[in-house]
Amino acid sequence: MNAHNQLFPVIDPLQRRRLANAIRFLAIDGVEAAKSGHPGAPMGMADIAEVLWRGHLHHNPANPHWVDRDRFVLSNGHGSMLIYALLHLTGYDLPLDEIKHFRQLHSKTPGHPEVGYTPGVETTTGPLGQGLANAVGMAFAEQMLARKFNQPGHEIVNHHTYVFMGDGCLMEGISHEVCSLAGTLKLNKLIAYYDDNGISIDGHVEHWFTDNTALRFQSYGWNVIGPIDGHDALAIERATAEARTSTDKPTLIICRTTIGWGSPNKAGTHDVHGAALGAAEVEATRKALGWEYGSFEIPGDIYAAWDARRHGARLEADWNARFLAYAAAHPALAAEYERRMAGELPTDWSQTVEAMYTKARAVTAPTATRRSSQIALETLVPALPGMFGGSADLTGSNLTAVKDSKPWAGAAPDAVVNYFSYGVREFGMTAMMNGMALHKGFLPYGGTFLMFSDYSRNAVRMSALMKQRVVHVFSHDSIGLGEDGPTHQAVEQTPSLRLIPNLDVWRPADVLETAVAWKHAVERSDGPSALLLSRQNLMSTQHPAGAEAQLERGGYVLADCEGGKPQVVLIATGSEVELARRTQELLADAGVAARLVSMPCTSVFDRQDEAYRNTVLPLYVPRVAIEAAQPDFWRKYVGLSGGVVGIASFGESAPASQLYKYFRITAEHAAEVAQAVVRLHASRREAEDGNVVRSMN
Ligand SMILES: Cc1ncc(C[n+]2csc(CCOP(=O)(O)OP(=O)(O)O)c2C)c(N)n1
Ligand SMILES: [Mg+2]
After folding, report:
1. Considering only CA atoms, which residue is closest to atom 21 of ligand 1?
2. Tens digits of per-residue pLDDT, 57-109?
3. Which of 193, 240, 403, 449 could be disulfide-bonded to 476 (CB atoms 3.0-4.6 Å)?
4. What is the DSSP code (8-state) at residue 154?
5. How many CB atoms lie within 10 A of CB 582?
6. In angstroms, what CA-CA distances link 199 with 44, 77, 208, 246?
7. Span from the CA of 32 to the centroid of ligand 1 (angstroms)
8. What is the pLDDT of residues 330-387, one digit of tens each?
């Protein structure tokens, strides 16, 4: 075990400083070459990084995916050159050439660290505060996995999560949400280093950030060390060693540092936060630090002292041997651990889906889709032990918990749980779920009202950007929630979530569509899904046998007109599908042939082949979309000559049935719109035919 402390032999302080200076000059040179970037934070945190990465961090540069590695998160992601320098120096597949191409197209060194681009980068950071929140999620995942898989004499899950962060992360509100939770959760293996340099972009923070950070974190239930001198390797060493002994609290190490340390004229000023030093100042810094090497030049002895490959290989080999012993003693657990860490579904997954579909089909009474989602979860949660649910204090409304949910609240300290009440912290919850997904071992899902997706939105975007399997459950999806009024009634949230690339937004209409949405969300391994669910009961459609395959295409013909030659196509989602059915009947009575298309997920429909899309939405047949949301999005499908029935204003407080009438989201109005659209098309066709006739004359 005590290979743990002090990975490398202690060396004299001057040599240590040289090793830290290698980070400083890689950052300086990288930013200089790119003519943009942030040298200040890497120069200020280089000494801390040297202590942590050379003395404590358990990782294997040859295998950045080794499951029991320590996680390192650079929450102040603008300091990206810090992590690139560390990965390069310790022997990851990040050659000097990549450092030279910092911030260039298709380099492995983008402006901010991005997961999936650079081996060793654990999460995408830059939106301040969120890296810290991801780290809390990672530490939570580690703790939950340890509870489940560790057995007496077999500690196969045992790693730390380290995070670097600056003033910006601590000013962001999300830091309060997640650090409060980290204290409550007693995440003792979370160790955060605060780069307390007194500077942010606008200058000296004393004018806008005067919290007593130590007291703040103590009140969260953290172990607070410091302030220490963040340029004193021994002090950092002692603080880190102490932090690692914590048994019941996360640790904050407050490190007083100087931004841009080493630059004679710019250190300690906001000038060095986000701009190249400039040739003259680079030279001055070289002189001041006694750095005798050229641009991008690192001497061999420094590379050798940083190289973590041999030690990393030993650490992983040691773990592999321990895992073999574990697998021999607990084969079923070991197999489940491997499956979950690989993000694979159980071998009986298709039976689980069948069971979920059978259960959905058995529902005939009117049912809210939030309840339909719970019905799906009743099958999924016991079948998928890696599912980890939660809600931002709306469990009873989102219906995210089921009989097999084992809540953290009230459970024994070492009990295996699969549900967490995050409290009223939508953004924190969502960014923590991203951290859990990135850590691996869990498929997190969490609920709130669709309205409050605005609170969590940037973390929803980050799960899409990072291609993480996270399920965002948003109930109470429209004016259909009724009396709570416009503060709670989503209007623009539905279309605006659809604008986030790589997010699949489902707005199912009935129990079976909801089950299909869950299946899709669970199977998706390259991105998140959002489920938009109704508060109010919706009719339960009786789908024909085998209809699931159609539903899985995101949009399908739910009810065609007689003869299959529609004059107009009605496209509806969620709660408006049953309304569109009545519209179809009204139109039939008026002699207009209308097709009804249910479109629970536009992005999945868009990914279908063109032939399929054209059979559902035939070219040249006019279209009318019906959705209780801001209407503009649907122009993409109906064009300017089609119609959209929606709501372009805020809602009102009243019973839902009155609101639908008041905002004219009714079958009668939709039928009028459809008839007008049909007339418009007919007259246009006549005009065009007239033109053809005239040109022939
Ligand atoms: C959410 C968010 N808001 C704003 C920014 C822009 N920004 C980048 S760094 C920074 C200042 C951060 O200050 P600090 O963390 O103290 O970094 P330092 O200057 O000390 O390196 C700001 C406002 C951002 N990246 N993310
Ligand atoms: Mg700062």
Report:
1. 41
2. 999 999 999 999 999 999 999 999 999 999 999 999 999 999 999 999 999 99
3. 449
4. B
5. 14
6. 11, 16, 10, 30
7. 20
8. 999 999 999 999 999 999 999 999 999 999 999 999 999 999 999 999 999 999 999 9
Dist. CA 547–CA 518, nearest whole Å: 16
Percent of the chain with pLDDT over 70: 97
The yes-or-no answer on residue 426 being catalytic is: yes
Specify which residues 472 forms β-bridges with. Answer: 446, 530
- For residue 208 and ligand 1, the question of a CB distance below 6 A is answered with no
Structure tokens at 204: 């000296």
H/E stretch holding 30 reads helix 13-34
CA distances from 190 to 51, 83, 247, 267, 465 (A): 17, 19, 11, 30, 25
User: Partners of 192 in the beta sheet?
Assistant: 163, 252
Chain Cα centroid distance, residue 356: 26
Cα separations in angstroms, 573 against 120, 321, 360, 433, 577: 42, 53, 18, 27, 5
DSSP notation for 210-244:
---HHHHHHHHT-EEEEEEETT-HHHHHHHHHHHT
Q: What is the reported pTM?
A: 0.97
95 CA distance to ligand 2 middle (Å): 29
For residue range 644-666, what is the model confidence (pLDDT) as tens digits?
A: 999 999 999 999 999 999 999 99
Residue 549 pLDDT more than 50? yes
Q: Is the separation of the CB atoms in 157 and 219 below 8 Å?
A: no
Given 50, 98, 426, 548, which residue is catalytic? 426
Phi/psi region, residue 476 (left: phi>0; alpha: psi -120 to 50; beta: rest), is left
Q: How many residues does the chain have?
A: 697
Question: Ligand 1 in contact with 30 (CB < 6 A)?
Answer: no
DSSP lists the bridge partners of residue 569 as 595, 623
Residue 272 is which amino acid?
V
What's the angle, vertex CA 594, arms to CA 589 and CA 596, rounded to 5?
A: 120
Q: How far is the CA of 217 from the centre of ligand 1 (A)?
A: 20
Q: Is residue 275 helix, strand or coil?
A: coil
Structure tokens at 26: 């890689």
Question: In the 8-state DSSP scheme, what is residue 116?
Answer: T
- Of all protein residues, whose CA lies closest to atom 12 belonging to ligand 1? 168
Give CA–CA dist 678/691, Å, rounded. 20
Q: Which residues contact 639 (CB under 8 A, 6 or more apart)?
A: 623
Q: Which residue has the tokens 């950045």?
A: 64
Beta strand residue intervals within 313-380, DSSP E: 367-368
